[in-house]
Amino acid sequence: MKNKRLAVILGFLAVLAVGAAIYSSLGSKGSSSDSGSSKTAKVGVLQYVSHPSLDLIYKGIQDGLAAEGYKGDQLKIDFMNAEGDQSKVSTMSKQLVSNGNDVLVGIATPSAQGLAAATKDKPIVMGAITDPVGANLVKNLEQPGGNITGVSDHNPAQQQLDLIQKLTPNVKTIGALYSSSEDNSKTQVEEFKALAEKAGYKVEEYSVPSTNEIASTMNVMTGKVDAIWIPIDNTIASAFATVVSSNQEAKKPIYPSATAMVEEGGLASVVVDQYDLGVATGKMAAKILKGTKPADTPVEIFNTGKSVINKKNAQVLGITIPEDVLKDAGQVIE
Ligand code: TRP
């Protein structure tokens, strides 16, 4: 009698247990398919330093991700800014890897290099990297091979030279101001110099180890050159106000390689659109999140520019901008 009752209880418990197991497996199936569609993508972003161009690229990245559906609670961005500090680049890179992000994005060459040193298997998307091969980030632009792909902003150097020739035909010596610590700048200076020398210019290089040497270097170079050219260089871009204030008396025409610097006190340039670079980077990060492998995703290259003319600065320098240049300009700052 006692055993029978025990058997009934055990049987009842067994039925309960099986029922619970079936229920929970159904439940977990249901909830796992739910979380499949609402799984939050984690994107780690490392920006090298703050300057208006990189800030705009970051905005574009967010918009590019959103355009592909990664927004609101579908996306968690783990954003860090190294403030131009190399030791922060390496600690933050390691942090972003260990935080369990699905995809990493490096804005500007030093941060992409930091991320590349921190992981060989997590996918990395390069945000606006001037020379991915020269910076040792990918072996081949068409077939990157490793865990890295992304977007490259190749400076339209020949177009810039043509503009220098049109706006300031009397210029003979051009000073190139750039940072000696940025791989992206070295290759641009080489390319610009070769093209300029072919066109009959003399190019003098003025490289600075950090923002601290910009003012003193400007003081020397403004006495020796007819015009100043600046590549897509983060160090110079982040302290461009110093470049402008150091040129107050010498009043040399400055040809920088980004819209923000033309707005801040440059004369003119031919530039790649920074926001577009960001959007393309964000869309590529979305593609990788959806499962595409960096190894066989070609690097997307932006190498043609539109001209930006600062008419106000032209007036200050006593330069008249030819009508056809104004008519063809992508942007005129009045
Ligand atoms: N291309 C630069 C790099 O590789 C980063 C960059 C993008 C930049 N836009 C810029 C630097 C504008 C200066 C100004 O590091």
Automatic annotation (TrEMBL):
Q: Which CDD domains match?
A: PBP1_ABC_unchar_transporter (cd06325)
Q: Which residues form the signal peptide?
A: none
What Pfam families does the annotation carry? Answer: ABC_sub_bind
Write down the Gene3D superfamilies for this protein, in alphabetical order. 3.40.50.2300
Q: Which domain of life is it from?
A: Bacteria
Name-wise, this protein is Peptide ABC transporter substrate-binding protein
- What organism is listed for this UniProt entry? Streptococcus panodentis
